[in-house]
Specification:
By secondary structure, this protein is of the alpha/beta class. Helix content is 28%, strand content 21%. The strands form three sheets. It has a seven-stranded mixed β-sheet. Strands 15-14-16-17-13-18-19 form a seven-stranded mixed β-sheet, sandwiched between helices.
Amino acid sequence: MEVTLLGTGAPAGLPRSDCPCAVCASALGPDARAATALLVDEALMLDLTPGAAFAAARAGHSLGGVRQVLLSHPHEGPAVEVPAGLPQPVRVPDGRELTLLTGHRVRALAMDAGGTGYAVTGPDGQRLLYLPPGGAPAGLEEGSASAEVYDMVLADVVGRPDALARLRAVGSVGPTTDVVAVHLDHDVPPGPELRRRLAAAGARAVPDGTTLVVGAYEDVPDVPRRTLVLGGARSGKSVEAERRLESFPDVLYVATGGSRNGDTEWAARVAAHRDRRPGSWRTTETCDLVPLLAQDGSPLLIDCLSLWLTDAMDSVGAWDDAEWAAGGERALRERVRELTTAVRATRRTVVAVSNEVGSGIVPATASGRRYRDELGRLNAAFATECEQVLLVVAGQALVLRG
């Protein structure tokens, strides 16, 4: 089964004609995208957009053999002229199934935010799933033995990463599923930044006019198993770390800072982090990271290593010069070695956050300088065990490794 993407952009296209934003200004050439529409084996069309016939011709295809045109969007959208010879577009009621004379079967899926998703099975049994913009499948049950496994998923990965998480939770998206981002809007700068964000979700984007073969998996990106995200205060490092796992189910958020009873400023920070996280994530407050890394299980988001280090330095008496010299330094080195050894051996997906503090003002106190130095050593040791290391500056992620 072949799928030609006549467009891969949001309903308004990219760039938007009336938008002066930086993303729209840079969406040129292969990064310019018409509204998403799919042509399946020149027999089935999913969503009809302006200029579809010309888009198909540019991609080397014809709409002359199309037997069915299906609409997915939550609304019918602006009136679009139906090219001569093309069937009138329709929407299939949720749960209904169509069988085309060409051997394709199409099942309509209910969405949680309006619109219709379509599961298409080709004549040879390949399966693809197409979701509308801003939508995720409704009624998915984790652990269901009847979950359909898709060879290809085309979805709004940037706008609704939780849709991908839901599909992964029920087993409909697996390691070999080709996840292609469509309905791309001006949320993310095109080019390297878009590719980086999608790769972290195990997805990719392709230019308009690309023809994909359902069941060809060689282009599926590898998701880094261990990632360290560094940054200064309010740099956006925690947002970046959370974004890397929001398309995965059952993430365990490991908060190393504790509750700090009575500290209202800290409580406000914790609440802001909690409100930002997906509702399906679990949270545990602990600095005992080694046992968690040794267990098999769901992805871990550790926020953050700098607070873990504070706790470790407290436990070895690092703030007292005499205790530090009498064995505290040696004890801390052992704690860091145990942690990095656990990171090296872990089978879990891990994203860890840490502060980058070595580029600013030299601390005025000996204990402050000691903490700065030990955090630099910890970051370097942890980074050595990671496939990917990022530095976040002013909300922009710079890839240092991977």
